[in-house]
């Protein structure tokens, strides 16, 4: 029997949290203001975390709190109050990388599940069993594992030990995210949440006797991006992932936007639901429109990571993203007589063809026929971020819809 996996979405801020819930995630993972591996994200204060837990649980979904830095001695005395407060606020699980933190969580927040972070570097069933025997509910496997290794692990560990795997998002050049490049070059410790992402920088070669002169490692005016991994995308391989026994499909991206969260949650939700409607079809392939959705967010060249025995590959000629669409607005009130209320995010014009992603269905196109401000003034464009506007279109637009515009 194949069990339906959880769709687990990132939430770097309250807006992304709402996007994840609206577009079909079963659970979200996020960080407080301390001990999370993405200090670049806005993250959640204790009051925001309380509201987030309430919001998630209202929808019978789950919230996992990242406590996945590798803390130093000075951090440890702060940990008990943080963990016990998180338990009181209602978090469902901690994502933990450090054995000491694992034991502190057992002591100070015994009601909260403990999940082992991908930074735990779990690559075999004995390691998974060891964590299970210590009390772990779930293991987030190292990203370097092949799919057949995951399937073998599933057969050799208890059925109630859950397996979580990354299925989409940025890949790290270091094994399971444990990196020293950032610390070495900038003094910012990646293992304490402060990665400066030097793997995305371009590099040149210097010759010691020619001070001040540099030479590109490859013949390119932009230098060479030595460490710049391709992005992971497993949307075409939902059947294989499910058959391997993975309990939770994890989407990377707590430092990314509400738009990224909406599109990725929607795509993987629709793909999993579609597959489970076709379990008896040995020739099932995910619908092309779902694959196309993931081309509408900014991304590096996609790969299947390590799942099939190859490596994700490096993008050595560019550090930038492939970007085909801009999110230009969010619908905050549904259409009445084809007039909807939107908040602007990027500039768009009357007459533009806009691509709508509604929470309840498939993407479709509308024409922006007119725009009106809250004061009733007719305008030809929406140039002001977060401006509230009334937009007339040729088709209705559902509340919560992401509105985007094709760039190329």
Textual characterization of the structure:
- The protein is α/β, with parallel strands linked by helices.
- The protein folds into 2 domains: about 5-175 and about 230-305, Aldolase class I (TIM Barrel, Alpha-Beta Barrel), CATH 3.20.20; about 325-405, Elongation Factor Tu (Ef-tu), domain 3.
- Helix content is about 25%, strand content about 25%.
- It has helices spanning about 15-20, 45-60, 80-90, 100-110, 125-135, 145-155, 180-185, 240-245, 260-275, 290-295; strands at about 5-10, 25-30, 60-65, 95, 115, 140, 160-170, 205, 215, 230-235, 250, 300-305, 325-335, 340-345, 350, 355, 365-375, 380, 380, 390-395, 400-405.
- An 8-stranded parallel β-barrel has the order 1-2-3-4-5-6-7-11, surrounded by 5 helices.
- Strand 13 (about 325-335) and strand 14 (about 340-345) form a beta hairpin.
- Helix 1 runs parallel beside helix 9 and helix 3 crosses helix 4 (about 100-110).
- The longest helix has 19 residues, at about 260-275.
State the end-to-end CA separation: 44 Å
CATH class value of the largest domain: Alpha Beta
- Average pLDDT confidence is 90
Structural class: alpha/beta
Low-confidence sequence ranges: none
Helices, strands, pairings?
Layout: E1 6-10, H1 14-22, E2 27-31, H2 46-58, E3 62-67, H3 79-89, E4 93-96, H4 99-108, E5 113-116, H5 125-134, E6 138-140, H6 147-156, E7 162-169, H7 181-186, E8 204-206, E9 214-216, E10 231-233, H8 238-243, E11 248-251, H9 258-276, H10 288-293, E12 302-303, E13 325-336, E14 339-344, E15 348-349, E16 353-357, E17 364-373, E18 378-379, E19 381-382, E20 388-393, E21 402-406
């Amino acid at each position: 029997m194949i069990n339906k996996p959880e769709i687990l979405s990132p939430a770097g801020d309250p807006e992304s949290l709402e996007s994840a819930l609206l577009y079909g995630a079963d659970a979200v993972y996020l960080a407080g203001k301390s001990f999370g591996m993405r200090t670049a994200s806005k993250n959640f204060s204790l009051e925001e975390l309380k509201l987030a837990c309430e919001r998630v649980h209202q929808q019978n979904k789950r919230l996992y709190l990242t406590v996945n830095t590798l803390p130093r001695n000075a951090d440890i005395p702060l940990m008990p109050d943080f963990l016990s407060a998180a338990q009181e606020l209602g978090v469902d699980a901690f994502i933990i990388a450090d054995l000491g933190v694992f034991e502190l969580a057992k002591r100070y927040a015994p009601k909260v599940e403990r999940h082992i972070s991908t930074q735990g570097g779990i690559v075999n069933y004995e390691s998974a069993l060891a964590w299970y025997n210590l009390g772990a509910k779930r293991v987030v496997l190292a990203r370097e594992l092949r799919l057949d290794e995951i399937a073998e692990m599933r057969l050799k560990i208890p059925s109630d030990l859950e397996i979580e795997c990354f299925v989409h998002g940025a890949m790290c050049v270091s094994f399971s995210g444990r990196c020293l490049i950032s610390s070495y070059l900038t003094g910012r410790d990646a293992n304490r949440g402060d990665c400066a992402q030097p793997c995305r920088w371009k590099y040149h070669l210097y010759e010691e006797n020619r001070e001040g002169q540099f030479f590109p490692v490859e013949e390119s005016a932009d230098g060479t991006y030595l460490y710049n991994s391709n992005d992971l995308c497993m949307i075409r391989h939902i059947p294989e992932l499910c058959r391997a026994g993975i309990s939770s499909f994890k989407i990377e991206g707590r430092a990314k936007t509400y738009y990224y969260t909406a599109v990725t949650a929607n795509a993987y939700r629709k793909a999993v639901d579609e597959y489970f409607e076709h379990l008896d079809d040995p020739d099932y392939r995910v619908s092309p429109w779902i694959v196309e959705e993931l081309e509408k967010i900014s991304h590096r060249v996609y790969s299947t990571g390590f799942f099939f025995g190859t490596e994700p590959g490096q993008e050595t000629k560019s550090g930038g993203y492939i970007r085909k669409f801009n999110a230009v607005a969010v619908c905050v009130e549904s259409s009445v007589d084809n007039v909807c209320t939107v908040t602007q995010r990027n500039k768009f014009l009357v007459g533009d063809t806009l691509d709508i992603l509604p929470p309840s269905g498939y993407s479709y196109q509308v024409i922006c026929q007119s725009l009106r401000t809250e004061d009733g003034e007719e305008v030809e464009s929406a140039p002001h971020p977060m401006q509230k506007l009334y937009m007339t279109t040729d088709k209705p637009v559902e509340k919560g819809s992401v509105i985007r515009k094709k760039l190329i």
